[in-house]
Amino acid sequence: MEAPPLHSVVREVTLPDGVRLPELLPRLTPTGCWIRRGEGIVGLGVADGATASGSQRFVELSRWWEERRAVVEEAPRPAALEQIPGCGPTVFTSVTYSSDSAHASHLTLPEVILGDVAGHTWVTVTTVDADDAVAAVLARHGLALGADGALTLVDDARDSPEFPATRLRAGAHPTEHYLDAVAAGVEAIEERRLEKLVLGRDAVVEAEAPMPRGVILAGLVRDYTDCWTYLAGDLLGTTPEMLVTVRGRDLAARVLAGTVDGSLSAAEAREQLLDDVKQRSEHEIAVQSLLAQLAPVVELISAQNPPAVLALPNVHHLSTDVTGRLSRTADGTLPPALTVAERAHPTAAICGTPTATAAELIAALEQLDRGPFTGPVGWIDAHGNADVGIALRGGLLGAHDRSVRLFAGCGIVAGSDPESELAETRAKLRPMLGVLGVED
Ligand SMILES: C=C(O[C@@H]1C=C(C(=O)O)C=C[C@H]1O)C(=O)O
């Protein structure tokens, strides 16, 4: 059966009270979010969507959006907004790290998307029902649009909701399990079974009442300006690592591997990252894995060399930006963003080298369903532009948003010390623990 068309309208607006999008977040209940350095998009409600699992999850999701975006009937867009990526119907997506996960991978097309990019603020309204008026859709999300383009909040939620009391409890395993897993990983590397693997662990934060998603996101946006703050389905966090950005034929990525604590000064961090053989080789493995995996879909690709140091409030990372140009497929089209993401995933930054050996050992040692953690997360618009990050420094909300399962992991190479790696996972949990008001 042919999919019914999607109807979409884009309007240039001023946001309520003339604020920027991040300031509006605490007063919204978003279903999708992607913000960095104060700019991005926030989705409200769900117009349509798809889920998939197993080894064909990328293919199934990608096919669904290719079919859906082909039947979008869009009202003429204001000229100033024609070229803005993420404007118009856009899906938020989260794909699981492993094909074995019990969690679903999904695409979510919000009914309303508020955008604030490059000095433009707009609203995209997408419906399946052609008779669903823009005003009625906006009203469902507490918004009203004046004739002058001023967007207002109808129920006037001036103040952010109270954040409930929270507490931290252990995840699937006690921390000793993580120390043992790292020690076993180092042993496997010393036996030359593999070069590198990434081991993760989880922790759970419970709340006395539902935690307002908009407040969590606003906190992450405020504290981690240089990261991409995301929400897709029940997954939210703030990631510094970009799996793949697609703008037309242009592709970009940011590879991170090699980490020291954020309490070090810039000079100390540079010395311990740039001048350290172990950190540099761990980083190089991750960069090379991405370049090799993307080779079949690019005609040009290059990596920054030497790497830079990315300073975040909680950690410093070795960081390499990659840029390239996508190859056209046999029929002259460009590969869809999710196909490119599937190629790139999993990089050695979140899995290891060789990939298959590392993936097997991760499953055996972590004993954790990572779900969407370390999987692709981001958005894809109807022109095929996309930002797909790696889901790090985040967690998965539980029933009624009264709990969140957090995840953090570390790259293990020859000579890695279990206690230091455990400390590194603590540092990587800090963005979420901070905004959830929990002390580790
Ligand atoms: C796995 C995580 O981070 C990854 C591991 C890194 C490392 O070991 O140095 C650095 C960045 C990420 O690629 C995480 O944040 O949970």
UniProtKB/TrEMBL annotation:
Gene3D superfamilies named in the record: Anthranilate synthase
Any Pfam family hit: Chorismate_bind
Transmembrane segments: none
Chorismate-utilising enzyme C-terminal domain boundaries: 176-428
InterPro entries for the chain: ADC_synthase, Anth_synth_I-like, Chorismate_C
Protein name: Chorismate-binding protein
Originating organism: Nesterenkonia halobia
